[in-house]
Amino acid sequence: MLKEELNIISQAILNEVEGYEFYKMAASQAGNKESQEAFMTLANEELKHVEYLEVLFNKIKSEDDDVKLAFEMDPPSPDIYNWKKLDKSQTSLAMSVFGIGIQMEKDSIEFYENAKAKTQFEEAKKLYELLIKWERVHLEQFTEQYDIYREDWWADQGFAPF
What is the pTM of this model? Predict the structure, then answer.
């Protein structure tokens, strides 16, 4: 009955795990402790999403009679990050990470929008809308940060358009 929703949640879990691994890799390449901590904060945010989705998956899979309640679980809110921790000497790395992060968030939004359009369950639509909002918070944060680093990078390289 809910096979499609379970498939969607399985793919969402994989997407979040990939995000976790990506940010963990960025942390390992960061040049200082503050930058490492900032990237690990991103990685841990992805893990929170994985944990939420795994619990949701297991509830839906095991509770056919109470599917409505499973979809009504509230995902934890995304954290607002303190980006001042990133070292300015890591501008190129930060731009790469945020640029890829922006694309991953856009892909996640599109994924959840498609899932929302395909599902027949009103509860699932509400869940996907919540997940879309979560990804949009990250997208806005990453875009804002990318723009800041881009300006810094342009200035450092003498490419500033001003």
Answer: 0.79
Helices and strands: H and E segment counts in the chain = 5, 0
For the record, the structure tokens of 17 come out as 């795990």
Exposure b/e, 68-89, CB count within 10 A at least 16 = b: eebbeeebeebeebebeebbee
Maximum Cα–Cα distance for the chain, whole Å? 63
Neighbours of 152 (CB within 10 A): 15
Backbone angles phi, psi at 18, to 5 degrees: -60, -40
CA distance 143 to 57: 30
What is the rounded CA–CA span in Å between residue 136 and residue 106?
Answer: 8
How many Cα atoms occupy the beta-carbon half-sphere of 68 within 13 Å? Answer: 2
Res 1: pLDDT: 42
- Say if residues 27 and 41 touch (Cβ distance below 8 Å): no
Q: Which parts of the chain register pLDDT below 50?
A: 1, 65, 69-70, 80
Q: Going from the N-terminus, what domains does the chain have, and what CATH number goes with each?
A: 3-78+86-153 (1.20.1260.10)
